[in-house]
Amino acid sequence: MKHYSRIFSVIFIFLISTSGAYSNGRPPGDPVTGEALVTEYYADVQDLNLVYIFKYSDEYFDRFTKFYKDWLAKLKAIPFNQLSKEDQVDYILLKRNILSDQYNLEQSKQDFQKIQYAIPFGPDIIRLQQQRRRGNTLNSMETAKLLNGVIQKIQQAKKAVQDKPLENEDLRKAAADALGDLQKGLKNVYSFYNNYDPDFTWWMKKTYPETEAALSDYGKWLEKQPVANSEKALDNSGIIGHPIGREELIRQLKFEMIPYTPEQLIQIAAQQYDWCLNEMKKASREMGFGDDWGKALDKVKENHLTPGQQPQLINELEEHALHVIDSMGLVTISPLAREAWRMVMLSPEQMRFASYFLGGPQIMVAYANEEQDYDTKMMIMRSGNYSFARAEVFHELIPGHNLQFFMNKRYRPYRRQFSTPFSAEGWAFYWEMILWDKGYNRNAEEKIGALFWRMTRCARIVFSLNYHLKNWTPQQCIDYLVEKVGLERFSAESEVRRSFTGGYGPLYQLAYMMGALQMYQLHGEVVGKGKMTDRQFNDTFLQNNTIPIEMFRALVTDQKLNPDFSTQWKFEGDIPVK
């Protein structure tokens, strides 16, 4: 015992002697860096979330309201002009994220106020968890009485929800999430004291299982209850999404540093589509179809492989792309990056959301499966034709997403907190634009394959924004893709289903082209004027992780920044609203 006392005394003295040495995780006088600030902020968020586990509670909202306010004050106290350009970029992006977190907290608080009547027993369970955090001794008889009251309140909550249904599906999900947190919190309390505190164990032998069963049954009941404003399919497509409206689109565009309105973005897409259409007609004429590019596209689709041969084609196309990129010295590719990529096949169910490729650490290949009917097999095989695959493999692998993921793990990984699809998808599509300029597509058929994808990205902007502006239904989006781009109907349905029900954000589909246009314009501004080589430009981008491209521009052009920076780069010029 004396031995342990001596150890504890030494530890205590050490803690006392060092308690003033570190402030917020850093030694006093330690220079402020963007990496340190970002790392500290997200470590703080993670630690607080481990303590305040009830995301829908007054306690959680009060604590995080103070937390965000304190962090904004901390940033304001930092002498911004004394920071390096790199650190200024991190500062701006961290401040942006904190303000966004603050906004989202307020939205959750408003949701909480609307669902409180559905979880009236919440404060009772939260009080138990508050005591359990520090291991306080519970009054077990009073705890049993409280849980018995929870069971009664569940019955009251059912009646309240029947009398006043939750407003919409989002609020029902919020109520379900809150209920799930409460169940986990109560189980945490029970696991801590049961079989340790004999009095608690005796009182809880029946009461806890009954309470847990009542909470579980309530959750299942809640899932089946109608909501006041149920979202229904807008047409016969069966796709039920969640259009967010113009105001929320503009807010999200501002967050992503895109200084255009939805209407202006649709106009930019139309201009890009017109360019694609003109090039399509040129290629169609080369193939002998005149201006009927649809027939030329159908001819290209016929050049597909039989089942079982697609993986080998992917390998050959990637090797060719690497050879071209290496010969031009466009980007540095480490031997390990060339070695580490791999391939999987998409299942029939996955192909309902993606009927071409998906990429990242691995390339996920779509191709006809024996479980599919004849028409579906043929549509997927036509969609996996040689020219389409040739124009897309390097987008998903190297130098596209696969190389990007590889580098993001190794360079400034803390910046993944700022990741944006405009950078991720913009980078991959930018390579399609660069290789087009450099003559990668050798004949009309290969050009049509590349143009198909470029037209698809234009169409994604038009249909996704019109949907979220509440102008179009999902079926109109499907028809648009078939008519304007020539997608197989199965592929068009997969595209729209993926866009609105596949877990992608409302801006994701427009991020491909807008991010690529940002990269392309910046490439012309920097490489085109001889300030950097292709390799230097591309390597520098990869080494800065997936930050908004406007912030990358600030770095490579040494732009003067201020702590209240807001998006201002009109990368496509001023677009008047028609």
Question: What features would you describe in this structure?
Answer:
The chain is mainly α and 578 residues long. It folds into three domains: 2-115, no CATH class; 119-224, no CATH class; 246-469 and 507-556, no CATH class. Helices cover 64% and strands 2% of the residues. It has 24 helices and three strands. It has helices at residues 2-18, 34-51, 58-76, 85-115, 122-133, 140-163, 169-193, 198-224, 246-255, 262-286, 293-301, 310-328, 335-340, 374-383, 386-390, 393-396, 401-408, 421-437, 444-468, 474-484, 489-501, 508-526, 534-542, 549-556, and strands at residues 342-345, 357-358, 362-365. It has a three-stranded mixed sheet with strand order 1-3-2, with no helix packed on it. A hairpin with a 3-residue loop joins strand 2 (357-358) and strand 3. Helix 5 (122-133) packs across helix 7, helix 10 (262-286) packs antiparallel against helix 19 (444-468) and helix 18 (421-437) packs across helix 22 (508-526). The protein is globular, with a radius of gyration of 28 Å.
